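Re: weekly structure request thread

Next one in the queue (306 aa):
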Amino acid sequence: MGRHTSDSSRHLRGTLVTALLRALGRLPYPLGRRLGLLLGALLWWLPNKGKRVARVNLQMCLPQLSDASQQRLCQHVLKENVAGMIELAWVWQHPQQALARVTDVENGEQLRETLASGRPALILAPHIGCWEVLNFWLSQHFPMHAMFNPSGLPALDDLIRAGREQFGTVLHPATARGVVSLVRALKQHDGDMASLSAILPDQVPDRRSGRFAPFFGQPAATGTLPVKLLQQSGARAFMAFAKRTGDGQFEIRLRDPDERIYDADVDTALAGLNASIEALIMEAPAQYLWTYQRFRRVPEGEKKPY
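Done, posted below.
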C-alpha cells in the first residue's frame, strides 16, 4: 500500500511538473525571461529556502563583499535562477532557436585541436549559465557522452532526456556501470576524432565517492569522479559554461583548469578542480546556482550551515 501510494504520488508530481515546464517552454523567450526575473525578484521579498541558502552560501564563499553587496548579488541570483529554470523549459523545446542565440565561442578551436590530435577531452560544466545550451553546442559539433542522474520523477526524466539527446548526446546513468561505460567512451575514437565527455563537477557526492576539498576556502564534499576520469583516460579537461549576455544571447566559454587537477594525488587534484570552478563562477557570479546546498555535508564534528 505504501509503495503504491508513493509511486502514484511520484507519477502525479512528475506529470504536473512536466506539464508546467512544457507550458512555460511555449512562451516566447523574451517573455519567459521577463517572467522569471519578475518571479525571482518577488522571491527576494518573501521568506523561502532558496533565498536563505543563497545568503548562507554567499556569506561563506564571498566574505570579502560587504553585506549590502551580498544582498544585491543575492537578489540577482534569485532572478537569474528562476529565469534560468524557465529558460531550460524553452531550450528543451526550441533547440535550433537556442543554438541560434550563441553569438560567440571562446577557445573552441583548442577543443577541436585536442580531439583531432587523438587526445580525449572531458568537459567540466558546473551549474552556471545555461548548461543545456552548452550541451547542444558541444553535441552539435562533436560526438559527446554525458552522465545523467535521474530525478526520481519518470515523466520529468523523459522530458530532460528527450531534450538533452536532440543532437546526439549519449547519456550514461550515474551508476557504477554508467561510470565504467563513460570511461570506455573516453578511450574510444570516432574516426580520426577522439572522444568528448561531459560531467557536472559541483554536485554533493555520496560519502563513498567524495572527499572534502576547499571551495572558496570552505571544506566542501567534492566528487572524485572528475579527477579519476582524467587519471584513467589521459583526457584534457576544459571548464565550460554558456554565459547569458544582456541581450538574450549566449557566449560559450571554454577554459583551461588549474593545473593541479591533473595531479596524481587525489586531494591535490580536487583542490585544483574546485579552484577551477571558483574561477569560472567569478566570471558571472549572479548566474551560479547559489541556491544549491553545496555545504550540506560537513566534516565530522562541524555544524551544518543550513
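Residues 243 and 283 are 9 Å apart (CA to CA). The radius of gyration is 19 Å.
Next request, please.
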